[in-house]
Automatic annotation (TrEMBL):
Protein's recorded name: Hydroxylamine reductase
EC numbers, comma separated: 1.7.99.1
UniProt entry keywords in alphabetical sequence: 2Fe-2S, Cytoplasm, Iron, Iron-sulfur, Metal-binding, Oxidoreductase
Keyword Metal-binding: yes
Reactions accelerated catalytically: A + NH4(+) + H2O = hydroxylamine + AH2 + H(+)
GO biological process: response to hydrogen peroxide
Job description of the protein: Catalyzes the reduction of hydroxylamine to form NH(3) and H(2)O.
Residues forming coiled coils: none
Length: 553
């Protein structure tokens, strides 16, 4: 295997990347190989989807399927070999259908068919043994000896960014938000990647195109969530258990939580959010409507083996990030959903959660109430915009000196304490915005307020970076300046591919001087880091003291 897509990638004697029998995330070499083959096959499918679109051939089923299958290859999503093989079988069938439709359109319109290259020519039988035998030819570092590590690194930057985009496209699709232009651009970038481009400038343009695409997708997802569940409102959330039977819901897909809440009414079951699901507490049609959504249990994804083992009820994982449930002996209480999968764990399909409810009722539940401890969430787009006049007034009065956006993915490396210490060291006349599971590094701390404005504002999930961008644009308009002239600094933690997609979005929008940590993405070479720094000011975190002094100096 060779996998280099996440922050916890191994540092090996032969270079960066997980290259042994098992990756740091727990996926085996078999799973890694199956994912490589699936990704390459999907690039070939997109090649025919893109070619067909130029002749007016649009296949809605293929549009919906491709991002979903691509999402299954993200870090900590799907570890189930049989489901990966099934996705590949569907890819084979979809490619054949699209190719036939494209050739038929060429005949009808009197157009000479294009001679598609690269992944478009890849053929395989969707059987596990055949896929594994073909894996070396599809490995993500293919062509390294021919084009060099800078070009391969840029290909991977685009590939991993597009994986993050695909995940958000699937989250939006579940909420009935789809767009033909979005699918068209997705297929265009996927198809080009399947041809293994080797021009540095073209690859940089593809990376920025990926960022612009993700901005549109986050806008769609924001619309899907707010139309379905209302606009989040600032909400105080209990972070401690209360007595009673219990269901824990983790991941990102709010619609699954909605179904569970509706079906557990009057059943004596308390429902808790976990991880990236915490912001659901602030939606009027979720936390504001169901009193048995009693709070949040646990913290970020990397702590789930301990936290899930101690949770005395049923657990539903709606999306990333899943890790091996077996060491915690809770696999029999865990249900995967949507794209998520683990061998031997029950995969829930459909909207009837009876099996989850039965499991929760059979479990012990919490025996007593713990002393409450609260955090705030719900400072998403509408709440931020409503607060903007008061914030602007405090800026003009000199009471707010600077804004810090400190958020992103969490993880288990010791270096991530940087983000806790950075938040703690932010001066009292500064505001802290946060989002994604990186918030758990400091959202249990007290930061006080500035004349009634909370100093810590939890914007929401990772995709809610869209809300923070809207606030920045509003502030820039009010102060008649560019976003980069605002007293605003972005300090981001990355772990997986959604974070890469958001970073590309920020860079594509022209936001400069972003700090990223805790380590360099292993697929970016020193040359590429230097190039991005020169072009955008992108830099790596150093020490809290040095970075704070540089920002405020």
């Amino acid at each position: 295997m060779f996998c280099i897509q996440c922050e916890q990638t191994m540092q090996t004697p032969v270079g960066n990347g997980c290259q042994y029998a098992m990756g740091m995330c727990g996926k085996t070499s078999e799973i890694s190989d199956l994912q490589d083959v699936l990704v390459y096959m999907l690039q070939g499918v997109s090649a025919y989807a893109h070619a067909g679109r130029e002749l007016g051939v649009i296949d809605a089923a293929a549009d919906a399927y491709l991002p979903q299958a691509f999402f299954s290859t993200l870090t900590n999503v799907n570890f189930d070999a049989e489901r990966l093989v099934a996705y590949t079988a569907e890819a084979v069938a979809t490619k054949t259908r699209l190719k036939d439709a494209y050739l038929a359109a060429c005949t009808v319109q009197g157009v000479e068919p294009k001679q598609l290259a690269g992944a478009a020519q890849f053929e395989i039988t969707a059987e596990k043994a055949a896929m594994i035998s073909q894996a070396p030819a599809t490995a993500v570092n293919r062509g390294l000896n021919d084009v060099g590590e800078d070009i391969v690194g840029l290909r991977l930057l685009v590939l991993y960014g597009l994986k993050g985009v695909a995940a958000y496209m699937e989250h939006a699709r579940i909420l009935s938000k789809q767009d033909d232009e979005v699918y068209g651009e997705f297929h265009r970038i996927m198809a080009r990647l399947g041809e293994d481009p080797s021009d540095l400038n073209e690859l940089l343009e593809l990376a920025m195109a990926c960022g612009h695409l993700n901005y549109k997708v986050m806008e769609m997802l924001d619309a899907g969530e707010t139309e379905a569940f209302g606009h989040p409102v600032p909400t105080k959330v209990n972070m401690k258990p209360v007595a009673g039977k219990a269901i824990l819901v983790s991941g990102h897909d709010l619609i699954d939580l909605k179904h569970i809440l509706e079906q557990t009414k009057d059943k004596g079951i308390n429902v808790y959010t976990h991880g990236e699901m915490l912001p659901a507490m602030a939606y009027p049609e979720l936390g504001g409507k169901y009193p048995h959504l009693v709070g949040n249990y646990g913290s970020a994804w990397q702590n789930q083996q301990k936290e899930f083992a101690n949770f005395p009820g049923a657990i539903v994982m709606t999306s990333n990030c899943l890790i091996d449930p077996n060491p915690g002996s809770y696999a029999d209480r865990l249900f995967t959903r949507n794209i998520v999968g683990w061998p031997g764990v029950v995969h829930h399909t459909g909207d009837d959660y009876s099996a989850v409810i039965e499991k929760a009722l059979a479990c012990e539940g919490f025996k007593y109430d713990e002393i409450p401890h609260y955090t705030m969430t719900g400072f998403a787009r509408n709440a931020l915009m409503a607060a903007a006049p008061a914030v602007i007034e405090q800026v003009k009065a000199g009471n707010i000196r600077h804004f810090f956006l400190v958020g992103g993915c969490d993880g288990d490396k010791q270096e991530r304490n940087y983000f806790t210490e950075f938040a703690k060291s932010a001066p009292d006349d500064t505001l802290l915005l946060t989002l994604a599971c990186g918030k758990f590094k400091f959202n249990d701390l007290e930061f006080g307020d500035i004349n009634g404005i909370p100093r810590l504002l939890d914007v929401g999930q990772c995709n809610d970076a869209y809300s923070a961008i809207q606030l920045a644009l509003a502030l820039a308009e009010t102060f008649e300046c560019g976003v980069n002239e605002l007293p605003l600094s972005l300090i981001l933690s990355w772990f997986e591919q959604k974070a890469i997609a958001i970073l590309l979005t920020l860079l594509a929008l022209g936001i400069k001087d972003i700090r990223v940590g805790p380590t360099v993405p292993a697929f970016l070479t020193e040359n590429l880091i230097n190039h991005l720094h020169e072009a955008t000011g992108l830099r790596l975190t150093t020490t809290v003291e040095q970075d704070m002094a540089d920002i405020l100096g």
